[in-house]
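Hi V.,

Quick status before I head out on leave. The structure for the redesign project is tokenized and pasted below; the design run finished overnight.
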């Protein structure tokens, strides 16, 4: 009889999974959506959002905090309070990751305005609160758009959602929660020590292997001394290897070919001379490699739209089925469709007002078109992101945002602020789609009620955008007159260890400026789009987008990340997947949290005048 009950009513199985014997009586209602889970999830989400804004500006991609939140949930809910259940901890991690997911959407888009304002101060005078309103609207829209697809993706298509499965495996092993927490703290402490040493100049921010091994300077070999970078590679393993290969393609194949073929505006006459190479590398990156990468992002994303057509039809059927279920009174499993439609309608209205107020030149008609076009593209973008994440854990987030900005640039007649506002909304919403579906996969595996997870995530959807935007401005202001991130930052110009390249925002800046000037390198965009579309034919979701992304990052970061991927693969072959989940994942997560929080603390100390010098 137990097996015939819905997942959230399998109390005996849930208690077995959480480490409780059948002999222990169940007293009172089973703990799930509690005040403790809500408060702990919010606190963890705020901390991780702040940390991952820094990571997004440095590495160019976002991360999920579900693993860290699940481990800490065992320590606090179970270890300190002694009352936490498996599904209560799942609600804690759902809330934390739902808040944190706004970090990527913000840092991929909004910093582009600040980067452009260095040379054009008028762009830095945009009203902030319409941007906040757009980000919050996107956070709610991403949740309500994707909820009706839960049955299709999880129960019918049975997409894997690797991160969702990994978090479920952690939740099912509460006996090891304390050990994993100690490993997490160890990794955080080690990363904090290393980061402080880099910021103080005691160790270099990058290890140059060209000199050590006598490799010519036109074939860059440098590794960033970054625990966060290494940790991200360790967590990704084989799935992140295409990202490293994309960087290798850019800097070990395309770059030397361009150099020696003389395709640069100023031919490189002495490729063995380090100073000459450094001078030409900037031109090659800006005029060759980065435009190709942007084209690959767009081509990969468009190929994903085409490939998703069958799933789009299934999504429409799922929406119809959800409406019929609600009319029949069967809304216990999911939120009522009326609630979802109301949430989506409210978000669209908020997006309309944000569009209207983003710039005095936006008319009511244009704002209506912007809100409508943004919502339609969001539906497709959310579908693509959820599918790609479900298959591979790789999200083509940035490519979809670039397409949104390009479309809105045309709709608004070249209004930069309004276009980036919609790009911000799409980026935040798409990431929410992926995160919500991954969390629902975890809940499906551990016996949580989908309705409880949906209510929890909708309750805190407004928190993440506020924290992410506040931290982004903190990091921008602390860098001095030229700002705190981006290739024009004083830190980056001085090659300081705290340089944050903001690669995603830099790519968006380059595209907007090229569209505005009418001098877009269309030939390189087109060539990149063909390559990105061709790569998408491989059975790896988002491959074209991933390789394109690697083309804007400094290669020392990509190289360090690749070393982490290969180390993870070797350790898994040596010790097995269980050892990776039990030992390596907590340490790698600690590397990320430790470096990010240390650098955020360093930034605040610099602003207070307590410490000086380079670095955050």
């Amino acid at each position: 009889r137990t097996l015939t009950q819905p997942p959230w009513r399998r109390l005996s199985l849930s208690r077995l999974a959480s480490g409780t014997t059948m002999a222990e009586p169940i007293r009172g209602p089973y703990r799930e959506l509690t005040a403790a889970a809500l408060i702990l999830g919010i606190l963890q989400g705020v901390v991780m959002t702040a940390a991952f804004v820094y990571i997004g500006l440095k590495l160019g991609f976002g991360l999920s905090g579900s693993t860290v939140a699940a481990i800490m949930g065992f320590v606090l809910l179970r270890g300190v309070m002694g009352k936490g259940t498996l599904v209560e901890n799942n609600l804690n991690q759902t809330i934390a990751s739902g808040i944190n997911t706004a970090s990527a959407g913000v840092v991929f888009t909004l910093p582009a305005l600040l980067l452009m304002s260095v040379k054009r101060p008028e762009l830095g005078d945009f009203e902030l609160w319409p941007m906040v309103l757009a980000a919050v609207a996107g956070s709610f829209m991403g949740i309500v758009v994707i909820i009706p697809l839960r049955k299709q993706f999880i129960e019918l298509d049975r997409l894997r959602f690797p991160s969702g499965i990994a978090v479920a495996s952690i939740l099912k092993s509460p006996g090891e929660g304390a050990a994993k927490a100690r490993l997490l703290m160890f990794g955080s402490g080690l990363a904090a020590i290393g980061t402080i040493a880099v910021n103080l100049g005691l160790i270099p921010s990058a290890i140059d292997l060209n000199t050590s091994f006598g490799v010519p300077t036109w074939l860059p070999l440098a590794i960033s001394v970054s625990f966060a970078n290494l940790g991200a590679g360790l967590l990704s393993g084989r799935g992140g290897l295409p990202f490293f290969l994309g960087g290798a393609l850019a800097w070990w194949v395309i770059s030397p070919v361009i150099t020696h073929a003389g395709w640069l505006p100023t031919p490189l006459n002495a490729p063995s001379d380090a100073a000459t190479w450094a001078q030409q590398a900037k031109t090659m990156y800006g005029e060759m490699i980065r435009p190709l990468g942007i084209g690959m992002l767009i081509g990969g994303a468009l190929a994903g739209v085409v490939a998703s057509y069958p799933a789009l039809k299934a999504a429409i059927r799922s929406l119809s089925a959800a409406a019929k279920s609600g009319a029949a009174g069967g809304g216990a499993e999911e939120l009522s469709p009326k609630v979802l439609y109301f949430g989506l309608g409210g978000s669209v209205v908020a997006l309309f007002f944000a569009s209207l107020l983003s710039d005095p030149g936006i008319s009511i008609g244009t704002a209506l078109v912007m809100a409508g076009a943004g919502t339609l593209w969001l539906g497709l973008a959310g579908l693509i992101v959820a599918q790609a994440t479900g298959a591979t854990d790789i999200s083509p987030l940035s490519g979809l945002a670039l397409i949104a900005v390009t479309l809105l640039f045309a709709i608004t007649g070249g209004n930069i602020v309004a276009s980036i506002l919609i790009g911000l909304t799409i980026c935040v919403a798409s990431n929410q789609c992926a995160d919500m579906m991954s969390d629902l996969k975890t809940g499906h595996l551990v016996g949580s009620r989908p309705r409880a997870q949906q209510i929890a995530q909708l309750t805190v959807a407004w928190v993440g955008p506020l924290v992410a935007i506040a931290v982004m401005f903190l990091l921008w202001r602390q860098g001095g007159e030229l700002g705190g991130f981006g290739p024009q930052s004083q830190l980056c110009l001085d090659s300081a260890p705290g340089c944050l390249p903001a690669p995603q925002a830099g790519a968006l800046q380059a595209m907007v400026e090229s569209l505005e000037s009418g001098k877009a390198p269309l030939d390189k965009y087109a060539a990149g789009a063909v390559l990105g579309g061709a790569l998408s034919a491989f059975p790896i979701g988002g491959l074209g987008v991933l390789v394109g992304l690697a083309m804007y990052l400094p290669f020392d970061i990509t190289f360090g990340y690749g070393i982490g991927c290969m180390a993870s693969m070797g350790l898994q072959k040596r010790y097995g997947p269980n050892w990776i989940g039990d030992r390596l994942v907590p340490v790698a997560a600690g590397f990320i949290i430790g470096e990010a929080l240390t650098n955020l603390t360093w930034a605040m100390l610099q602003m207070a005048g307590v410490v000086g010098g380079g670095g955050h």
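Above is the designed sequence. Confidence is low (pLDDT under 50) at residues 1-28, 326-331.

G. will cover questions while I'm gone.

Best,
W.
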